[in-house]
Design goal:
InterPro entries: Beta-ketoacyl_synthase (IPR000794), Ketoacyl_synth_C (IPR014031), Ketoacyl_synth_N (IPR014030), PKS_Beta-ketoAc_synthase_dom (IPR020841), Thiolase-like (IPR016039). The chain has 422 residues and is α/β, with parallel strands linked by helices. The chain has helices spanning 20-28, 38-42, 57-60, 66-69, 75-90, 116-127, 138-142, 146-155, 170-183, 200-208, 248-253, 283-297, 316-328, 342-345, 352-366, 380-383, and strands spanning 5-14, 17-18, 34-36, 49-51, 105-111, 161-162, 189-196, 239-247, 260-269, 306-308, 337-339, 368-369, 396-397, 402-409, 413-420. Strands 1, 2, 5, 6, 7, 8, 9, 10, 11, 14 and 15 form an 11-stranded mixed β-sheet that branches. α5 (75-90) runs parallel beside α8 (146-155), α9 (170-183) packs across α15 and α12 (283-297) crosses α13 (316-328). The longest helix has 16 residues, at 75-90.
């Protein structure tokens, strides 16, 4: 139970950068990955923009065999395999074709909805009486655990290989689940992360809820505005993030680079009671999640240097900030620096937690805090709670010792993890 858990590899497929170097350059420069999609205009969406990683055919061929590519029609699996494989290699681990699995390595890789386009393709073929044309990969592309199954086979992992799903909390929850497995001594290494499909069949429900911005179709890079007074809803996105968690002794033994240490965290739910509902967080549960994450990590509130929030560019942003001030008992100029990745990527739903964990660890390792894009007009309710200087608009150089990362999801579920400089 005294095992320390560190991060030795990372990978990402984000709307503003595919590959760790491309992604880090993007977040340092406030580069947006949000674009206009003519398909959404044709389908009469109110919000005709979104965040989608750009994957070329040449890049695909570096991660999938011709056989695997035949009939592959799940963007989430594509993003997950790219980020997961990159994280594995970034950790200095090899991919072998040994007959024996790697019993000391496992995978927890989550998703929200997987293979929607494959489902649509399958439904048409079945309705037309062409079931035999479905192909042999339709099941693995549409089952929820398709992403962990793909990665498990590619990497040859013999420990726990599974998929979790908790809406927008999925990626951060996967990381904490992997952390717990290493901490308890059940394995020495876990690949954790999450992915999410793109497109109208994923984003349509949110458009119908009228919680997406509809005034930025001609200016997509300005649309996602976390903590801004002019925020008009979250921009839907997609992608994947992945991290290799490892027992510290194992990492040291093989001379691995260590990005940061995972101190611990907390996962809870507001039970959809009180202020909580299917779509809104119970504030008491959020505060409790933050406080318990600190307690579980043996960290005082005044030790937190930075927060990477959930902060989706909705009316809930100011409520989230209020919850942080109450949980940490810090406000004004005493509040930690805080930022949101979503100004650059949009809200990548089930992929958001893992992508944002990657961005959080990059900041710790690189001694900087990336800027909050489209936050020129900080919401007055937020500026009344914390010093606006704690919301940097551009990248600043800053040594971060401890960073808190939070994710909150539909179903009134919460996850907070604490990372520390190694």
């Amino acid at each position: 139970m005294n095992r320390r858990v560190v991060i030795t590899g990372m990978g990402v497929a984000a709307p503003n950068g595919v590959g760790l170097d491309n992604f880090e350059n993007a977040i340092k420069q406030n580069k947006s990955g949000i674009r206009f999609f003519p398909e959404l205009e044709k389908l009469k969406f109110s919000c005709q923009i979104g965040g989608k990683p750009e994957i070329t055919e040449t890049l695909l061929q570096q991660y999938f065999t011709p056989l695997q590519l035949r009939g592959l029609n799940s963007s989430g699996i594509v993003y997950g395999v790219i980020s997961g494989t990159d994280a594995w290699k970034d950790a200095g681990l090899t991919i072998t074709n040994d007959n024996s699995p790697d019993w000391g390595s496992g995978i927890i890789f989550g998703t929200g909805i997987l293979g929607v386009d494959k489902f649509r393709e399958a439904i048409h073929l079945i309705d037309e009486g062409n079931t035999r044309r479905l192909g042999s990969t339709s099941v693995v592309q549409t089952m929820a655990s398709g992403i962990s199954a793909y990665l498990g086979g590619i990497l040859g992992c013999g420990n726990q290989v599974t998929t979790n799903s908790s809406a927008c909390t999925t990626g951060t929850e996967a990381l904490l689940m992997g952390y717990d497995r290493i901490k308890s001594g059940k394995t020495k290494r876990m690949l954790v992360g999450s992915c999410g499909d793109h497109g109208p069949y994923i984003w349509g429900g949110f458009d119908a809820m009228r919680i997406l911005p509809n005034k930025y179709n001609n200016d997509p890079e300005k649309a996602s505005r976390p903590m801004s007074e002019s925020a008009a809803g979250f921009v839907p996105g997609s992608g994947a993030g992945a991290l290799v968690l490892e027992d510290l002794d194992s990492a040291i033994e093989r001379g691995a680079r260590i990005y940061a240490e995972v101190l611990g965290g907390e996962i809870n739910s507001g039970g959809q009671r009180g202020e909580g509902s299917m779509t809104a967080a119970n504030n008491e549960a959020v505060e409790r999640c933050i406080k318990m994450a600190l307690k579980n990590s043996n960290i005082r509130p005044d030790e937190i240097d930075a927060v990477n929030g959930h902060l989706t560019a909705t009316s809930r942003d100011s409520v989230e900030i209020l919850n942080w001030t109450k949980a940490l008992k810090r406000n004004g100029a005493d509040f930690p620096y805080i930022n949101s990745l979503k100004g650059m990527t949009g809200h990548c739903l089930s992929a958001s937690g893992s992508m944002e964990c990657v961005s959080s660890v990059l900041q710790i390792y690189g001694d900087y805090i990336f800027g909050n894009m489209n936050c020129e007009d900080i919401h007055p309710e937020i500026s009344a709670l914390i010093d606006p200087d704690k919301i940097p608009r551009k990248k600043i150089d800053k040594k971060i010792n401890i960073l808190a990362k939070a994710s909150f999801g539909f179903g009134d579920v919460n996850a907070v993890v604490l990372f520390k400089k190694y």
